[in-house]
Amino acid sequence: MKFRHLFIPHTETHQKAHLISWHGLVIYILLFILLQVGFSIFGYTNPGVLGVDSNIDQKSVIEFTNEERQKMGLAPLSENLSLDKAAQAKAANMFSENYWAHFAPSGKTPWDFIQGSGYRFSYAGENLAKNFYTSDDVVKAWMNSPSHKENIMNPKYKEIGIAVVDGVLNGQKTTLVVQMFGTSTVLAQAPSVNINGQNIAVPENHQVSPEVSHLVASAQTQKISPSVVNPYAVYKTVGIAVLSLVGFLLIVDFMVLKRRGIYRFSSHHFASLSFLTAGTVSIIGMNPGAVL
Amino acid sequence: MENKQFSYYLRKHNFVSFSFVALFITIWLTTLPKSTISTIQIIWLLSLIFVGWSIIHHFLDKSLKMEVVIEYLVTVGLVMVILLSFLQ
Predict the structure, then answer these.
(1) Are β-strands A290-291 and A159-169 bridged in parallel, bridged antiparallel, or unpaired?
(2) Which of B46, B63, B83 comes nearest A265 by C-beta?
(3) Residue B52 contacts A, CB cutoff 8 Å
(4) B85–A239 C-beta distance less than 8 A
(5) At B38, is the secondary structure helix, strand, or coil?
(6) Which end of chain B, N or C, is more open, meaning fewer C-beta atoms within 10 Å of its C-beta?
């Protein structure tokens, strides 16, 4: 095998360059999987070194949320300090129990935190987000999800609480955003909480455990050092580089064959290039943010 | 006869048509709310069309060798592995 045949079709057989043959593509896949596994192992052995550094602040999340409500003619929500505390306790609990869900593995519910903060409600709701870069991105992602949008646009809610908390989740530095909504007016009916678009009735005799009350009382924002490497930025850079290399070599393959006057019946350059383009565009648009 | 005509049509036009259809579907689907259909689902759909079409082509018109179908599968695999790394 000659070095140039890594990049251009074989001089005599006109076979594809090795770097774009299916064997070459399999090697890229294996190397990429190896990179992911490596990051995963490194994250667990060195917690907090990998992760996403965000620039999200509590006030702007409230502002963007109210802007969206006002666009629809709804009254803005006012910040409630008890709901802030409940949101902070929820985020701290997600880090301490290492979970990403509305309900904790230990059985704690969203209303445990709300009621634990002393907030009495008739309606409440919870939105979660993690690993977004800006406050605007967080609110946009919630607005793009019908069940989260339903919470933001719910006319029954009057108050809001937000927590933006940094910590280590699954070995990676993560910024969690917890958004809690509530209406403190006491109505005759049993209180309910909206989770993922579903209204869940809170049992009338529900008692908040002393552990939750302690969590809420002691919840406070802590600062942790920024992460050293953002694995998602690495995945994006490496991914785009690999697909660009494959695309570039496909163009070279097409041009070399054209110059040699060879028609390779099995090659469909345009189809492969358009698929790679669609894949690359999707990768450029990907971000590590997730909502729940 | 009908099969031959179909395979001739596929050979002459399939991948050029596919390319435009794929790009059109991508652009259209990315305008939908993310929770309705995610980027990963878009690529899955495109991959299904891409690989499905090439397999149909292979069986109707032997000009598309199985090795090329494997090449497409591996290309799709590469894009999917990169995209899946963003899922948490």
Answers:
(1) unpaired
(2) B63
(3) no
(4) yes
(5) coil
(6) N
- Name which of A239, A246, A282 is nearest B43 (Cβ-Cβ): A282
Tens digit of pLDDT per residue, chain B (88 long)? 444 554 554 555 555 556 556 666 666 665 555 555 566 666 667 677 767 776 776 677 666 667 777 887 788 888 888 887 876 5
| ipTM score for this prediction | 0.75
What's this model's pTM, rounded to 2 decimal places?
0.75
Is residue A167 within 8 A of residue A178, CB to CB? The reply is no
d(CA B51, CA B43) in angstroms, rounded, equals 12
Angle between helices B2-30 and B39-60 (to 10 degrees): 170
Q: Is A283 left (phi over 0), alpha (psi -120 to 50) or beta?
A: alpha
Q: Are B61 and B10 in contact (CB under 8 A)?
A: yes
Q: Going by DSSP bridges, is the β-strand pair A192-195/A123-130 parallel, antiparallel, or unpaired?
A: parallel
Residue A26: closest C-alpha in chain B: B74
B87: nearest CA partner in chain A: A288
